[in-house]
Amino acid sequence: MVSPLKVGLAGLGTVGASVVRLIDQQREALAARCGRPIVIVAVSARSKSKNRGINLRKMRWVSDPVKLASDPGIDVFVELIGGAGNPARAAVTAAFKAGKSVVTANKALLAHHGIALAELAEKCHVALNFEAAVCGAIPTVKTLREGLAGNSITRIYGILNGTCNYILTRMAQEKLAFAECLKEAQRLGYAEANPSFDIEGHDTAQKLSILASLTFGTRVDPESIYVEGISSITPADLNAADELGYRVKLLGVAVRTEKGIEQRVHPTMVPKESAIAQVMGVTNAVTIDAEGIAPITLVGPGAGGMATASSVISDIADIARGVRATPFGRPSAQLTISRKAPMQRHEGGYYISMLAVDKPGTAATIAKRLAQQSISLESIVQRHRGPHGGDSPKRSGPVPVILITYATTEDAVRRALGAVKRDKVILGDPQLIRIEKN
Amino acid sequence: MVSPLKVGLAGLGTVGASVVRLIDQQREALAARCGRPIVIVAVSARSKSKNRGINLRKMRWVSDPVKLASDPGIDVFVELIGGAGNPARAAVTAAFKAGKSVVTANKALLAHHGIALAELAEKCHVALNFEAAVCGAIPTVKTLREGLAGNSITRIYGILNGTCNYILTRMAQEKLAFAECLKEAQRLGYAEANPSFDIEGHDTAQKLSILASLTFGTRVDPESIYVEGISSITPADLNAADELGYRVKLLGVAVRTEKGIEQRVHPTMVPKESAIAQVMGVTNAVTIDAEGIAPITLVGPGAGGMATASSVISDIADIARGVRATPFGRPSAQLTISRKAPMQRHEGGYYISMLAVDKPGTAATIAKRLAQQSISLESIVQRHRGPHGGDSPKRSGPVPVILITYATTEDAVRRALGAVKRDKVILGDPQLIRIEKN
Question: Which one of B30, B47, B136, B177 has the largest count of C-beta atoms within 10 Å of its C-beta?
Fold first, then answer.
């Protein structure tokens, strides 16, 4: 009889309850796959009396998660408490020091303390697994940490936040305003009451920092990421993107450049025919570009109790099978420091939307300012808003002008638009969306 | 100083040469990721003198691959010879008996002798890794064997053959005939001179048998799979599919039913908005449905030297890191026998295209025969071929009739169409394409 893997689980929210349920349901399959049973022997959560619809009778209750983490009766500590601070951080640290491997779904903890925790895990010769911290049920961590070990990856980008993708999808499909879609997302439970962490891109940045580290061997550091959210995107932008052959997604992008690893989160125009452009609603997706091969794209549920539990259990199963990967794919001491990418040096195509003053010479002025920065245009769309629309020659106030540039630098675009604004040929601020080619 | 992992590699075709090149290029990254260097110490191939554009000077040449497999100087044997028979089979067997782990890209060998080889590998406590045997660079094996260990998977289906998907894509996009696209695929090197193994679905079946085993714990057996190729598909079918909201793909499908695991390969109509429908050209994709979560889809390059080498190296890297997974995810002794799915019991929707005789009562006869088998229709498209097209009342010979049924059984459809044929209200044989809903 092989000894079971004894699990201590802290945090019994939606994910924790799903883990308890799924381990029970999959008991036999897991034992067959791992060569030994997996048993949750002890749990910890804030309220003991709360009815979670799961059977906890065979498990010990340990009120203090930090105590549970170093409990001599467990082999693995599963941290589903959440948050970058204590008790999550203290509990994980205690587990390592007591020689226990840790499985966590806590992206904030990893984004802020990932390297220190990985160093400790390595020092204690235990595992730190976190498949569930990024993209729910999609095996992104395993793919980067193990699956593509032999590839030289040049870029990784993805839809890492279901809330934003849900909002952008509804806006595009139903021509609705951002605020309206956000409300709908909140009503459906896809967005928090305070949605700024999601919609301003910070959730995506935390996840990107973890993926970038696994991909490029950089030390996890969300502060080194340029972050821009989706709240300024309008249905008009989405409509223009559609007409030009693009869709707009909030992407996290990490790319190897001559100046180092560029990490950024921003609304992005992606070609309609790309795999990432097809990803709708709350679904997540990651595309990996490696030298010499066509891109690999992984698509699936990025959130939800069962999806997250699925990854938590695969992490536990790896430990049951005796696998101990280095947390970030290579020894922490070898991870390099990634500096904040200077966005002004970013190179790529741009979508620029402006409200041009309808007077002679406006087009010439805009064209001159772009030319002065050596920016070439892939397309120009200008529509008169006159009663007859289209090619109507009637002049009637400001005119929306949409430009798609060929690859240029952020710096050049900012300079050109600054000059255009000083020339007083446009109203308000131009909208600027970066283009990511596949 | 940690001892390097010493690799013996047999087979220096496109894949083998790419493995040699990539291991050299990624030397440092691999050492960092695996905690030890990976070194190819000896190779074997048919011709020693052939110029492959790779540097073999530091490697011993062993003419006999079976000798190489048990060479005391190697830790891992990489089999890239191909074919279900010898020398591949003998070499892999010899490697196991000498206590060496094996990495192979040989789907034929696994489809025909996978279980016997897995049993031997388990008995000898060595690894048998074969990520490269299915879907090139996409980490399908790892995802099924490790990544979704805790999930109860209900269905797996995919585009497992790039040749067929290339042909179907060209046919659909350019309204070209099958034969023409096949020729083009041959010209581009996407199809063999003798293409029947690919286009008749046998390549897909071999790969499906491996995926089904990993997914459902069945013993690999390509003979238990219902197989139908793509050579009867016409541009008219693809056009009709498009109008009805579908695309046609050659899918390998394994699904858990009440009667056991149904495994089948056939042209399939998939809803246009599904992830699998977006996959174009030689790209491969696999969708996994697990209980309680949204589907996971993995997309990427399914063939080519670099794509296949990428998976070979990730398998070698796992061995270097000391990971030894059970070949088919659970002990071979626990794998169950999968019987050939009785296709007549298959349940699903059907696309039926017929050439109906244009005389009074034809529609009523067809409708009656379907009703007698309790088949309900989702849509009917009938087009008169008269000079005015569309709703023209002019009668002018046989009329194409296209039906989409709601879920029914293969048996019912076959009976109904048999009766319709005996009624002499249609010309020739009806075309029948199964529908796979997402």
Answer: B136
Residue B23 with chain A: CB contacts under 8 Å: 150
User: How confident is the model over A387-407, as a mean pLDDT?
Assistant: 72
**Residues of B designated catalytic:** 207
Mapping DSSP onto H, E and C, the string for A77-125 reads EEECCCCCCCCHHHHHHHHHHCCCEEEECCHHHHHHHHHHHHHHHHHCC
Dihedral angle sign, alpha carbons of residues B391, B395, B399, B405: positive
- Of A26, A131, A330, Cβ closest to residue B152: A26
CA distance A212 to chain B (A): 15
Q: Residue B280 belongs to what domain range?
A: 140-300
Whether A299 and A284 have beta carbons less than 8 Å apart is answered as yes
Domain boundary among A325, A357, A380: A325
Q: Are residues B296 and B371 in the same domain?
A: no
Q: What is the pLDDT of residue A384?
A: 63
Rounded CA gap, B417 and B421, in Å? 6
A11 and A131 inside one domain: yes
Task: Give percent of chain A with pLDDT exceeding 70.
Answer: 96
The share of chain B scoring above pLDDT 90, in percent, equals 85
Same domain, A207 and A247: yes
Considering the domain architecture, whether residues B75 and B121 belong to the same structural domain is answered as: yes
Residues B14 and B108 in one domain: yes
Are both B281 and B376 inside the same structural domain? no
Catalytic, A359? Answer no
Residue B336 has pLDDT above 50, yes or no: yes
Chain B positions touching A309 (Cβ under 8 A) are 150
Q: Does the structure show a pLDDT above 70 at A330?
A: yes
Q: Do B32 and A278 touch (CB under 8 A)?
A: no
